[in-house]
Structure formats: structure tokens, C-alpha cells
Specification:
Length: 72
């Protein structure tokens, strides 16, 4: 993904989740996806899909059971 596309995704997610600490970064040696972080914590991956000129993005976030225990 190009840098302007990554920035658009970042701004969209920051606004959608009301979370300015969220950032989107390039993944090493991957061009079809980017990583999503809150501060320094990795939370997921966004994959880009280009199907016959129609572009869409899929955000994948894994939630571990141990993470749920932290909430109480």
C-alpha cells in the first residue's frame, strides 16, 4: 500500500474509534497489508483487496482469552 492510502486508513480508524493513539504502519516485506497499533501495542492487520477495480479493506484483530481476563 502507498503511504497516502495508509494515512487515509489511519485517519479513518482514529475518527471511527475516537482513538488518536491508533496508528497504521507498513509491514516488513508485505505490500498487500498494514499493521494497526495503539501506541506500541500491535492489535491487528488490515488487508487490501482489489477485485476488478473495486478496492476494499478487511481489518483482522485477534483477541486472546488472557486479554479478556485483564478486564476483570
Amino acid at each position: 500500500m502507498k503511504q497516502d492510502e495508509i494515512k487515509q486508513l489511519e485517519l479513518y480508524l482514529q475518527k471511527k474509534f475516537a482513538l488518536p493513539a491508533l496508528n497504521v504502519r507498513k509491514r516488513p516485506q508485505k505490500s498487500d497489508s498494514v499493521e494497526v497499533n495503539i501506541g506500541d501495542e500491535f492489535i491487528g492487520v488490515i488487508y487490501r483487496d482489489d477485485d476488478e477495480g473495486e478496492v476494499s479493506y478487511a481489518f483482522q484483530m485477534a483477541i486472546l482469552e488472557i486479554d479478556l481476563d485483564e478486564i476483570g
